[in-house]
């Protein structure tokens, strides 16, 4: 089977201009046939690579992120008529910003990704931290959508740690009525 070719010009015509209201397509309702794998990957630091070159247009990357779908450990770009596989190093989203705001249930931690996703940590979007058993280095993640997570940049994680409070030897943050453990003080 020949590798599918991505029609970048056709997709570009569908990308909204900057400042346009973002709306996620109903990817969860689409079930097209698998068309093969693309030479595309999302790197650990959130860069999108197509045929060896980085996609430099932020609006294009953002648009691709809206049609991203996960099945098991595999990732796909999905449209109503086709589904193509792509490679992802770790997780597909990368969070580069953190803001605070007051919500109905108190403080909200509002994360922004490099693909313009704005996610409030809470019951539907939990934070979790994995700690490498050898190095002790933390890897923080936030649930985005459809079982897909994003990794927090080191800078964002440090901001989060600054907001944390110590409870029984643990670093804890709260957002939208939920409490999340960032790690132990041991």
Task: Give the secondary structure arrangement, pairings included.
Layout: H1 8-14, E1 34-42, E2 48-50, E3 53-54, H2 58-66, E4 68-71, E5 74-78, E6 83-88, E7 93-103, E8 106-113, E9 118-120, E10 127-131, E11 138-145, E12 148-152, H3 154-163, E13 165-167, E14 170-175, E15 178-184
Parallel strand pairs: 1-6, 7-12
Antiparallel strand pairs: 1-2, 2-3, 4-5, 5-6, 7-8, 8-9, 10-11, 11-12, 13-14, 14-15
CATH architecture of the largest domain: Roll
CATH superfamily assignment of the largest domain? duf1285 protein
The CATH class of the largest domain turns out to be Mainly Beta
- Percentage of residues in helical conformation: 10-25%
Q: What characteristic shape results from the CA principal axes?
A: globular
Q: Let me know the number of strands.
A: 15
- How far the N terminus sits from the C terminus, by CA atoms, comes to 54 Å
- Ranges with pLDDT <50 over ≥5 residues? 12-21
Largest sheet: 6 strands, mixed
Q: Number of helical segments? A: 3
What oligomerization state is this entry in? Answer: single chain
């Amino acid at each position: 089977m020949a590798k599918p070719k991505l029609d970048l010009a056709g997709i570009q015509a569908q990308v909204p201009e900057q400042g346009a209201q973002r709306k996620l397509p109903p990817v969860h309702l689409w079930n097209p046939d698998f068309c093969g794998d693309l030479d595309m990957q999302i790197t650990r630091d959130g860069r999108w690579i197509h045929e060896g070159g980085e996609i430099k247009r932020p609006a294009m990357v953002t648009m691709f992120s809206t049609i991203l779908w996960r099945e098991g450990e595999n990732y796909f770009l999905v449209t109503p008529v086709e589904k193509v596989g792509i490679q992802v190093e770790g997780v597909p989203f990368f969070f580069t910003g953190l803001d605070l705001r007051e919500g109905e249930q108190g403080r909200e931690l509002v994360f922004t990704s490099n693909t313009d996703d704005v996610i409030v940590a809470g019951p539907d979007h939990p934070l979790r931290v994995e700690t490498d058993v050898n190095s002790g280095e933390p890897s923080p993640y936030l649930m985005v959508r459809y079982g897909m997570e994003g990794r927090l940049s080191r800078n964002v994680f440090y901001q989060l740690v600054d907001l944390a409070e110590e409870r029984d030897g643990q670093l804890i943050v709260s957002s939208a009525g939920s409490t999340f453990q960032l790690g132990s003080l041991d």
